[in-house]
Amino acid sequence: MIKLLLPLGLAFIMFSLGLGLRLADFRRVLRRPDALALGLLAQVVLLPTTAWLIATGLSLAPEAAVGLMILAACPGGVTAGMVTHLARGETALSISLTALTSMVAFISVPLIVGGSLLLFMGDTSTVRLPVGQTAGGLFLITLLPVGLGLWLNETGRIGARHAALVHRVATGLFLLIVLFTFASQWPAMARHFPSVGPAALLLNLLTMATGAALGALVRLDGAGRVALAMECGMQNSALGITLAVSLLGAPALAVPAVIYAFLMNITAFAVIAVRRARHATAHG
């Protein structure tokens, strides 16, 4: 049941984000290819490099090091769009980067994960993402619901009152998903946090800072910098867990992804709180 309800909940969240967007938002994103290119660079190159430096610098155990690299290889998570929206960031940029990095993941993930297995564990196993499942998930959970919401908003087929109701329900669903993640993964997090938690937290903070810095480099406004920071910091932990448990048959490699999922939501809520407080002060 959970395996069905969770994707449906995520799809509804993306639908609600689509209701707040217009085609002009995506046209504006396309006029900034430098932002898209830097976001892709951060996800595919800088994030795995940072994870490697952390794993090496902190002398993580081989399994923890590979698990951290698996997480870093994953594209941005679906919830990055919701967090960006709640933090008053540029949602269209976040969604565009999620789609772009998810498509590139078919090539980048096998290379990074395979290289990490060889480097840290001397394992020559090869990793292949299930193309049909991954592409189908991207379309059904992200692109289709966002497109439907965008179409309804663009054509005026949904009123502001109904759209606001959808946004409130989606926010509630997002909070429930976060709480469910905490509750279901708490035993594993509590057991392994002392050894893996500092590395996961450091990776999260450094990648968010990298995203914000890259946004400043190309002179994005605050909303654009938030989108890049969230896209870099909110990884697709579910994919990392699936890679470790189902494709590699090594649950121990999933531990960093489980702990990171917990930590990234805490830091994301902190960013949301700061951004909304600043917005309230500026418009108070």
From TrEMBL:
Q: Where are the transmembrane segments?
A: 6-24, 36-58, 64-87, 99-122, 134-153, 165-187, 199-220, 232-251, 257-274
Major localisation: membrane
Instruction: State the compartments where it is located.
Output: Membrane
Q: Name one Pfam family in it.
A: SBF
From which domain of life does this come? Bacteria
The record gives the membrane topology as: Multi-pass membrane protein
GO annotations of cellular component type = membrane
User: Which keywords are on file for this protein?
Assistant: Membrane, Transmembrane, Transmembrane helix
Give the protein name, as stated in the record: Bile acid:sodium symporter family protein
Q: Which species is this UniProt entry from?
A: Denitromonas iodatirespirans
